[in-house]
C-alpha cells in the first residue's frame, strides 16, 4: 500500500533583505554574543564558568590541576582535607601494596634475586593469598635474598640514592592513610613532625574517630609491618628512622584501645578474630630484621593487657622476680636451665624469644605455690626486697624445669618457688571436671563475664574435662538467651564426647522443645520415655510457655486443652513426699490464674499450706510466700478500694495458716497495686504501710514500696505524705552510702545466681524517683498558684 504524499514543509529561511557588508554582519554577531554571555551583574570577571570547563575535562587531568592549585595556595589544604571521604580499608591496603612494590622493584638488580611478592590478604581481596599472620607461611626473611654479594659490587650510597625517591613515596603513602586508622592520642604524637602536618593529622583523626574499628586498624598496621619487613636490609635501615617510631606508637595505642574496650568497657570480639590477631603478632615477633624487637615488645604488651583472650598462663623464675632483678641475670638462668622448654603453655618459641619474655614478668617474694591447689602466703621474704607495684599472685600450673642460679644483686638466694603473675581478668585453666564446673559458675556470677560466648569459649578449651553438669549449665543459659542453635550445638557436643545425659538433660530438652513451640512433640517424647508416671521436674516444664515472639502459633492458642492433659497426668507433690513440691504448687497456681481460675488456685494453695509441717526452713517459707504473692498479684488486676479490702482479707487468711509466713516488700507492693484508681489512694496506702511496719517490722518496706506510696500521695495531692516518704528514702540512701561496699571476698558460688541479683536495676529506680520528684514539684507549684488565686479573690 502506497503511502500518502507528505506535504512539503515550508522553507524556514530568512526573508530576502538588502545586502549588508561582511564587516557589519560580523560586528552584529559579536555584539549579540557579548550580550548573551554577559552576566546579570554587569561585571566582566564572571564571563567564564569554571564548572563547565572542569566538567568537560577527563578525570586524570583533575589531579595535576588540584596539585598545582595546592602548591600555589597551601592554605587550601586544610579546607580540602575534611571534604575528602574516608578511604576504605581496601583502598588503603592497595595503595600500600602498590607503593611497596615500586620500592622493591627500584632495588638495583633485584629482578632475579629478590623473593616473591609478599603475601597479603587479611580476609579480603582474592588476588593474593593470606599472609603469615593468619597462620600461613611466615614472612620471607630478606637477609637470605638481598645479601651484600648480590648487589653486584655497587656501593650502598648509590643504592640508597636510587631508593630515596621511592622511600619518600612509600613513607608518604603510609603517613597519608595512617590518621584514618590511628588510635594514637594527638598529644602523644611525635614532636618531630611539623606543626602544619600535625594539625592536618589531628583534623583527620578528630573527624573520623568514630569510624575506626580495632579490626581495621590491626589489618592496616599488619600490612604496613609486613611490607616493611619484606624489604631488603638496606631499605629497612633507611625506612626504620622514618617509620618505626610512629609504627611503635600505633601498635601500642591499638593494644591500649583493646585493653580499654575489653577490660574496662566490657567489649567483646569473636574468638576467630582474636586468634588471627595473636597469630599475626606471633609471626611478626618471631621474624628477624629491623622491626623484630619492636614487635616483640608489642607482643609482650598484648600478653600483659589482653592475653587472657586465649587463657594464656605465664610462668616465671621466682628467684629473679624482684624489683632488683636484671635482664642479664634472668637470661643466664634461662640458658643454664632448659631453653627448649616454652615459657608459655602450649606455645613453642625460639630460645632468644623466651629469654626476652622472662624478665618481663615479676612476682612477689613472700608468696608461693605449694602442690596443685594450695596457695599460702606465710613464706618469709628472702631476699627482702620491696614487692612490685600492682603485682598479683594467683595459683598456676607448677613450672619446675628452671633451676636456681646465682644473682649478684639478690643475696641470699630465695628457695625455688613456683608462682605466676596474671592480669586481673584471667582465669586459670581447670584441671578436673569439678573445677571446670566451678570456673563456669564463677564466670557466670560476674556481670562482666556472664556472657554465653565467653562461657562457650572457655568450655571448648577443656577437651576431656567436660561433664554432663557443665553441658547442662550451658544448655540452660542458651535456652534463656533463646539461642536454639547453640542448644543443638551443645547436644551434638555431648554426643561427640560420649557423655550420657541425665534427668536434668532430659528436662532441658523438654524445655527447649516447649520454648520452640513444639509442645506436642515434647509431650510425645516424655510420655514414651515414662509411660507410667512422669517425673515431677519434667511435668513442670510443660507449664512454661514459649517466648512472646512464638505466641502467635495455632498450638499456643489452645492452653485449655493442654492444661486438661497435664491435670490428667498429675504426679504426686504433697508436702514431705517430694523434694521441692512447693515449686510445683507455685507453677500450677500461676497456670490456673492465667486461665482465670482464681478459686481453684486458692483451693490448691490452701490444701498445700494446711499440710505443711510445723517447722519449715527459711527457703521453704520464701517459696510459700511466693505462692501467696502470685494470688495477690491476680487480685491487683482489679483496681479500687473494694478490691483492696478483698485482697487484704485474702492475704490475712493465707498468712494466718502457718506461723512462719511473713509478708515481704513484694507482697505489700502487690497489695498496694489495687489502690491505683481509688480516690483516697495516698491516704490508704500510707495507713497500710504504717500498719504493716507496726505488725511485721520495718523489713516490709523497700524502695519500691516507698515509691508506690509516694506516687499515690502525689496523685491525691497529699504532699505532706510525699515529703515523709521522700525523707525516708533519702535517709536510706545515706545509710547505704555511708556503709560503702563490702570488702569481704565473695565465695565461689555453688549454683548460678539469679539475673535479678546480678542486675538489681538500681538505675531504673533512680530514674523513676527522679520523674516522681518532678511531678511532685509541679503539683506543689499548682497548689501554690491556686492558693494565691484564692487569696487574691478574698482580698478583692
From TrEMBL:
Gene Ontology cellular-component annotations: cytoplasm; nuclear membrane; proteasome complex
GO biological process per UniProt: nuclear protein quality control by the ubiquitin-proteasome system; proteasome localization; protein transport
Superkingdom: Eukaryota
InterPro entries: Cut8/Sts1_fam, Cut8/Sts1_sf
Pfam families, per database record: Cut8
UniProt keyword list: Cytoplasm, Nucleus, Proteasome, Protein transport, Transport
Major site of localization recorded for this protein: cytoplasm
Chain residue ranges for the region called Disordered: 1-47, 374-423
GO MF terms, alphabetically ordered: proteasome binding
Biased composition (Basic residues): 374-389
Compositional bias (Basic and acidic residues): 1-11, 27-38
Similarity comment: Belongs to the cut8/STS1 family.
Biological role stated in the UniProt entry: Involved in ubiquitin-mediated protein degradation. Regulatory factor in the ubiquitin/proteasome pathway that controls the turnover of proteasome substrates. Targets proteasomes to the nucleus and facilitates the degradation of nuclear proteins.
Quaternary structure note: Binds the proteasome.
Protein name as catalogued: Tethering factor for nuclear proteasome STS1
Annotated source species: Mycena venus
Amino acid at each position: 500500500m502506497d503511502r500518502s504524499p507528505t506535504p512539503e514543509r515550508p522553507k524556514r529561511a530568512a526573508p530576502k533583505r538588502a545586502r549588508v557588508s561582511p564587516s557589519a554582519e560580523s560586528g552584529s554577531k559579536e555584539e549579540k554574543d557579548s550580550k548573551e554571555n554577559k552576566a546579570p551583574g554587569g561585571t566582566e570577571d564572571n564571563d567564564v564558568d569554571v564548572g563547565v570547563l572542569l566538567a568537560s575535562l577527563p578525570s586524570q587531568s583533575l589531579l595535576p590541576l588540584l596539585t598545582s592549585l595546592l602548591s600555589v595556595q597551601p592554605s587550601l589544604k586544610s579546607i580540602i582535607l575534611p571534604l575528602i571521604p574516608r578511604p576504605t580499608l581496601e583502598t588503603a591496603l592497595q595503595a600500600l601494596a602498590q607503593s611497596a612494590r615500586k620500592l622493591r622493584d627500584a632495588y638495583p638488580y633485584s629482578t632475579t634475586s629478590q623473593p616473591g611478592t609478599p603475601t597479603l590478604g587479611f580476609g579480603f581481596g582474592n588476588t593474593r593469598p593470606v599472609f603469615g599472620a593468619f597462620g600461613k607461611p611466615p614472612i620471607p626473611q630478606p637477609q637470605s635474598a638481598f645479601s651484600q654479594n648480590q648487589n653486584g659490587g655497587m656501593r650502598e650510597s648509590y643504592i640508597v640514592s636510587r631508593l630515596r625517591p621511592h622511600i619518600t613515596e612509600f613513607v608518604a603513602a603510609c603517613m597519608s592513610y595512617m590518621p584514618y586508622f590511628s588510635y594514637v592520642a594527638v598529644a602523644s604524637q611525635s614532636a618531630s613532625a611539623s606543626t602544619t602536618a600535625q594539625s592536618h593529622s589531628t583534623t583527620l583523626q578528630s573527624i573520623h574517630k568514630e569510624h575506626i574499628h580495632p579490626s581495621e586498624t590491626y589489618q592496616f598496621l599488619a600490612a604496613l609491618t609486613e611490607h616493611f619487613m619484606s624489604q631488603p636490609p638496606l631499605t629497612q635501615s633507611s625506612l626504620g628512622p622514618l617509620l618505626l617510631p610512629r609504627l611503635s606508637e600505633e601498635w601500642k595505642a591499638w593494644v591500649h584501645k583493646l585493653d580499654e574496650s575489653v577490660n574496662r568497657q566490657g567489649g567483646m570480639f569473636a574468638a576467630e578474630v582474636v586468634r588471627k590477631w595473636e597469630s599475626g603478632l606471633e609471626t611478626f615477633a618471631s621474624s628477624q630484621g629491623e622491626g623484630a624487637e619492636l614487635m616483640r615488645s608489642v607482643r609482650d604488651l598484648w600478653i600483659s593487657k589482653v592475653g587472657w583472650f586465649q587463657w594464656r598462663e605465664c610462668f616465671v623464675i621466682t628467684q629473679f622476680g624482684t624489683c632488683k632483678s636484671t635482664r642479664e641475670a634472668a637470661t643466664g638462668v634461662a640458658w643454664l636451665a632448659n631453653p627448649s622448654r616454652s615459657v608459655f603453655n602450649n606455645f613453642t618459641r625460639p630460645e632468644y624469644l623466651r629469654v626476652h619474655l622472662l624478665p618481663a614478668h615479676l612476682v612477689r617474694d613472700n608468696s608461693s605455690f605449694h602442690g596443685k591447689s594450695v596457695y599460702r602466703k606465710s613464706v618469709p621474704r628472702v631476699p627482702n626486697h620491696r614487692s612490685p607495684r600492682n603485682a598479683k599472685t594467683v595459683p598456676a600450673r607448677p613450672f619446675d624445669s628452671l633451676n636456681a642460679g646465682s644473682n649478684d644483686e639478690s643475696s641470699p638466694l630465695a628457695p625455688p618457688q613456683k608462682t605466676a603473675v596474671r592480669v586481673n581478668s584471667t582465669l586459670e585453666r581447670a584441671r578436673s571436671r569439678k573445677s571446670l564446673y566451678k570456673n563456669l559458675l564463677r564466670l557466670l556470677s560476674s556481670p562482666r563475664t556472664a556472657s554465653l560466648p565467653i562461657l562457650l569459649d572457655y568450655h571448648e578449651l577443656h577437651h576431656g574435662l567436660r561433664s554432663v553438669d557443665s553441658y547442662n549449665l550451658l544448655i540452660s543459659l542458651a535456652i534463656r538467651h533463646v539461642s536454639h542453635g547453640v542448644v543443638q550445638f551443645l547436644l551434638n557436643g555431648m554426643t561427640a564426647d560420649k557423655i550420657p545425659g541425665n534427668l536434668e538433660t532430659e528436662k532441658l530438652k523438654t524445655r527447649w522443645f516447649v520454648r520452640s513451640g513444639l509442645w506436642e512433640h515434647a509431650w510425645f517424647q516424655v510420655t514414651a520415655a515414662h509411660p507410667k508416671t512422669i517425673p515431677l521436674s519434667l511435668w513442670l516444664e510443660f507449664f512454661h510457655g514459649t517466648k512472646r515472639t512464638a505466641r502467635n502459633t495455632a498450638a499456643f492458642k489452645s492452653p485449655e486443652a493442654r492444661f486438661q492433659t497435664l491435670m490428667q497426668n498429675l504426679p504426686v507433690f504433697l508436702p514431705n513426699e517430694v523434694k521441692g513440691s512447693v515449686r510445683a504448687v507455685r507453677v500450677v497456681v500461676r497456670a490456673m490464674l492465667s486461665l482465670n481460675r482464681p478459686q481453684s488456685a486458692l483451693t490448691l494453695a490452701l490444701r498445700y499450706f494446711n499440710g505443711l509441717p510445723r517447722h519449715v526452713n527459711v527457703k521453704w517459707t520464701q517459696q510459700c510466700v511466693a505462692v501467696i504473692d502470685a494470688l495477690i498479684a491476680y487480685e491487683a488486676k482489679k483496681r479500687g478500694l473494694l478490691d483492696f479490702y478483698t485482697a487484704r482479707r485474702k492475704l490475712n487468711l493465707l498468712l494466718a495458716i502457718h506461723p512462719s509466713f511473713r509478708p515481704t516488700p513484694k507482697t505489700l507492693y502487690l497489695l498496694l497495686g489495687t489502690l491505683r484508681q481509688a480516690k483516697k489512694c495516698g491516704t490508704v496506702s500510707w495507713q497500710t504501710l504504717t500498719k504493716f511496719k507496726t505488725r511485721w517490722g520495718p523489713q516490709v518496706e523497700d524502695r519500691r514500696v516507698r515509691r508506690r506510696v509516694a506516687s499515690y500521695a502525689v496523685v491525691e495531692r497529699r504532699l505532706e505524705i510525699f515529703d515523709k516518704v521522700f525523707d525516708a528514702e533519702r535517709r536510706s540512701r545515706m545509710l547505704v552510702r555511708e556503709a560503702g561496699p563490702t570488702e569481704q571476698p565473695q565465695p565461689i558460688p555453688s549454683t548460678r545466681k539469679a539475673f535479678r541479683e546480678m542486675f538489681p536495676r538500681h538505675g531504673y529506680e533512680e530514674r523513676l524517683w527522679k520523674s516522681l520528684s518532678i511531678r511532685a514539684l509541679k503539683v506543689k507549684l499548682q497548689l501554690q498558684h491556686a492558693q494565691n488565686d484564692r487569696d487574691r479573690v478574698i482580698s478583692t
